[in-house]
Each structure stands twice: as structure tokens, then as C-alpha cells.
Amino acid sequence: DNNGFVHIVYLKRQGEDAWLHYATNKSGSWPTELLFANSDLGPYNEGSTFPRFMHHSLDLKLQDNGKPIVQFFNGKIYNVIACGPLGRIDSSYSFYELNLNILAQEANDSWTYYSVPTPDFNESFGCLPAGDRFGEFSHLINAGSGQFYSIGNALHNGKAMFGRSGIADLNSWNFYAVDSLRRAYNSNPSDNLFWEGFDGIRFAQSDDSVINMIYITSRLYGKLNSNDILKRFYFASFNPDSLGSKNYTPYYREIT
Q1: In 3-state terms, what secondary structure has residue 46?
Q2: Predicted model pTM
Q3: Which of 33, 103, 126, 139 places its Cα 20 to 30 Å from the Cα of 71?
Q4: Pairing label, strands 68-74, 99-105
Q5: Max Cα separation, the chain?
């Protein structure tokens, strides 16, 4: 921060699950604090079957007042009976979180929790809710004036996404699709349930406010034989103020 102190957020494994922790050296030592103390954030071990191929994500930025703000993906699962590939009843997940959350530290060092609304996307994988399971590979950007941007993905409808909070209002968010795996693979959602996904997202913001993204996608996502998985790298460049406009299309390029 402006005073030279370091702020970190991390996941700590307790039992088989992930718990969110925060630490800073502003006191001269490194005390740790358990955040989101009422719940773990889901399985945190290599043997976990559900949620499928989950990527725990978290990011920390500083607010305009110098206090930290933390964005994290909640992978909590409550049961594993739900629709599976191609709509079959399968050992999948149904009652779960799988969403994006925010904790912002206040002036008195207490934390305020914000549940980020589900993106209003209308495409879905078979029997899974549209816009569901969103926020993996997430990144947070302080856009100034109390506004934040969020970059990540909405897995259950195959979207790379960009979100914008309200001005000084972390309860209000609008989300826009930057790219779709349907566009990238020219595929039919009903034929490829769980077969396409993201393996990583990175971004950079230029001086003219244009955001550049690089993301890794997988074809035949979730196949047990790794030799069958086709990965592609994509670059996208877009102006946040133009997303959502009917006549605006971001610039895409496959990296080969």
C-alpha cells in the first residue's frame, strides 16, 4: 500500500477443504485472519471429484481508501446428486455455491461481505442453470471512483466474462460476455456438455482503457484421456464501455 505494507490473501487447507485467510505486516509482524469464517470454500485436495475440475481463484486489490478488497470463488458443494453429461442423472453436483464473492475491509478494519449477482447469460449446458458456476480464474481491477471491474469465466454457459460494479456500490454488477466457447469451437451446446472449458485467464489494461485478455480453452474438457484434450489459446481486446452494445464486437485472435 502507500505506506509500504504488504497485504496477502491465501487459501489454507484444513481437513479436505479450503479456508480463506488474510495477512498483513502493518503491525510489524504477520498476524493472520480467517475471512469468510462461517464456511469453507469447497474441496481442496487432488483427489476431489466434485466440483469437476474446479479452480480455486482469489484476488486482492486496494480500494481508493487504501484498504484491501478481496474477490474469491466459492466452490462449496452441499450434495452430489444432479444432472450429469447430456442431461443424464449422474454423480454430479446440484446444491452448491460455485459463485463469485467479495470482502471489502472498512476503515475500522472490519470486513463487509458482498455476494456478486449471477451473470444474466441465457445460454446453458443442458440441465444446468444459465450463468451458473462463475468466477473461476477471476481477476479484480480498481477502476477508480469506487468502481471495480471483474474478469473471469462463467463455466456452465461457456463464456469469458467482464463485470462492472456500480460506482461505490459493490452490490450492483453488470456482466458482459467477452467471448463464447461456442464461437471458438463452433459447437452445439447440447452435444458438448462438460466438454469445453477454460484452463486459465490473464489480462492487462492499457493506458487508453482497452483491456487485453489471454485465455486458454480446452476442447473435450473433462475427458479422462488427456491425449484427447485439444487446447487453444486466444487473445481478445475490448473497450469496457462498448461491451453490451449491439453493434460492438471485441477483437479476437487465436494464438498459434
Answers
A1: coil
A2: 0.86
A3: 126
A4: antiparallel
A5: 56
Residue 85 has phi, psi (to 5 degrees) of: -55, 135
The answer to whether 125 and 182 have CB atoms below 8 angstroms apart is: no
pLDDT confidence bin for 193, thresholds 50/70/90: very low
Map residue 212 onto helix, strand or coil: strand
Q: How far apart are CA 139 and CA 152, in angstroms?
A: 6
| DSSP-assigned letters across all residues of 91-138 | S---SB--EEEEEEE-TTS-EEEEEPPPP-----STTSPTT-SEEEEE
Which pLDDT score, from 0 to 100, does residue 252 have?
94
Helix/strand/coil for 141: strand
Q: Is the pLDDT of residue 128 over 80?
A: no
Nearest to 74 by CA among 41, 120, 105: 41
Task: For residue 111, give the C-alpha cell.
Answer: 470486513
d(CA 124, CA 10): 31
Q: Please calculate the CA angle 103-108-111 and round it to the nearest 5 degrees.
A: 15
Specify whether the CB–CB gap between 150 and 138 falls below 8 A.
yes
Alpha helix (H) residue ranges in 191-245: none
**pLDDT of 76 strictly over 90:** no
13: which strand partners?
18
